[in-house]
Write a structure and sequence with these properties.
With 358 residues, this protein is of the alpha/beta class. It is built from twelve helices and 14 strands. The strands form three sheets. A ten-stranded mixed β-sheet has the order 2-1-3-12-11-4-5-10-8-9, sandwiched between helices. It has a two-stranded antiparallel sheet with strand order 6-7. The chain has a two-stranded parallel sheet with strand order 13-14. Strand 8 (186-191), helix 7 (197-213) and strand 9 (218-223) form a beta-alpha-beta unit. Bound molecules: nicotinamide-adenine-dinucleotide. Nicotinamide-adenine-dinucleotide is lined by residues 13, 17, 73-76, 89, 92, 262-263, 279, 282-288, 294-295, 298, 336.
């Protein structure tokens, strides 16, 4: 099969880590008989420098014509003082909107060979942890009506609104159920239904939708405050978690911290079709750019997610994940995950080791 992938390298370490992912994808293509075609386009600071805008029209067109998109990261000191409208991050919001992506999926995976990197006690994480947070990305309080004012009774005040429609909840539930069908067939839906009306609708809708369309899936509810505690108390109990924009924002950062290594975590954004945007969760790390010390694994795992979730290439995704596991078990480490007694390698060497083990 032939797959057209747009690569948005971006800024800082973006080009280095994307090169690592491309190397691994080419190894997968060779082994499994697929042709991955890569088309590089500009986004973020480099696009501002060349075209004056963080998201050139040509980039949007290429992404919409592609089978899927791989992104490095955007931003850096050079563009920090530009007006908000032309900042590199604007490119990210723009491409998500243009591609109609309304979900963000972040697997917080702790590999058992990196259990020591977790801030949690070894006994809690020794067998590895994988918490997949499916976050609604385009609704809720971040996009609801808001305002501020002043009255003589209360003085200055401000307000934001959490509002969800059944359709918005159903479509994010579908994404979570699709993922869960390939895994434990269990989802935990996180809300604050003991207080919020919007959460009560969330809970009712998630259950009704899952029961009707995915009867094999078990849905468990968990209040958001309890979830925050459970993630640090017993992280191994989680698999797929579905939640609103604001709760997902907070819980996905908490879950990422449990793994203790930002250079190992990938994420994807999906909409109605199969095309998605796949990226590492970290930023452009301008402090280490150009030194070939950035860990490419997060981007390599983002590429693996693309194979499984956009192209349905489950075996190929598993081949990348087990190559990463093998390399870690053999003791190879980039600087950010270095441990006593391990063998330190550069970013490009790490990618080459993973590609060799495909
Ligand atoms: P960052 O994630 O870029 O870096 C935080 C720390 O982690 C740094 O010390 C960095 O060296 C390290 N780090 C990050 N990725 C690494 C990797 N793969 N290997 C080894 N070490 C790694 O976050 P920041 O410093 O807050 O932001 C830097 C720039 O990135 C800013 O301009 C910010 O706006 C941008 N940013 C972009 C995205 C994105 O493109 N999705 C996300 C977050 C931040």
């Amino acid at each position: 099969m032939n797959y057209n992938i747009v690569v948005l390298d971006g800024d800082g370490i973006g080009p280095e880590i994307c090169a690592g992912a491309i190397k691994v994808l080419n190894a997968v293509g060779k082994k499994f008989g697929h042709d991955f075609n890569f088309e590089h386009r500009l986004i973020g600071g480099c696009a501002i420098d060349k075209c004056g805008v963080p998201l050139p029209e040509e980039t949007v067109k290429a992404c919409l014509a592609s089978d899927s998109v791989l992104l490095g990261a955007v931003g850096g000191y050079k563009w920090d003082n530009l007006p908000v409208d032309v900042r590199p991050e604007k490119g990210l919001l723009g491409i998500r909107k243009a591609m109609g992506l309304y979900s963000n999926i972040r697997p917080a995976k702790l590999w058992s060979s990196l259990a020591n990197a977790s801030p949690l006690k070894y006994e809690l994480v020794k067998d590895g942890v994988e918490i997949i947070i499916v976050r609604e990305l385009t609704g809720g309080i971040y996009f609801g009506e808001r305002g501020k004012g002043f009255d003589t009774m209360s003085g200055e005040y401000a307000w934001d609104t959490e509002k969800y429609s059944v359709a918005e909840i159903e479509r994010i539930t579908r994404i979570a159920c699709e993922l869960a069908m390939k895994r434990s067939k269990k989802i935990i839906s996180v809300d604050k239904a003991n207080v919020l009306e919007s959460s009560r609708l969330w809970r009712k809708t998630v259950h009704a939708y899952a029961q009707k369309h995915y009867p094999e899936i078990t849905v468990e509810d968990m209040l958001v405050d309890n979830t925050a505690m459970q993630i640090v108390k017993n992280p191994a109990q989680f698999d797929v978690v579905v939640t609103s924009n604001i709760f997902g924002d907070i819980l996905s950062d908490e879950a990422a911290q449990v793994t203790g290594s930002i250079g190992m975590l990938a994420s994807s954004s999906l909409g109605d079709g199969t095309r998605g945007l796949y990226e590492p969760i970290h930023g452009s790390a301008p402090d280490i750019a150009g030194k070939d010390i950035a860990n490419p694994v997060a981007t390599i795992l983002a590429a693996a997610m693309m194979l499984r979730d956009s192209f349905g290439l489950t075996k190929e995704c598993a081949a990348i994940e087990s190559a990463v596991q093998k390399v870690l078990e053999e003791g190879w480490r980039t600087a950010d995950i270095m441990q006593d007694g391990a063998k330190k390698v550069k970013g490009s060497e790490m990618a080459a080791l993973i590609a060799e083990r495909i």
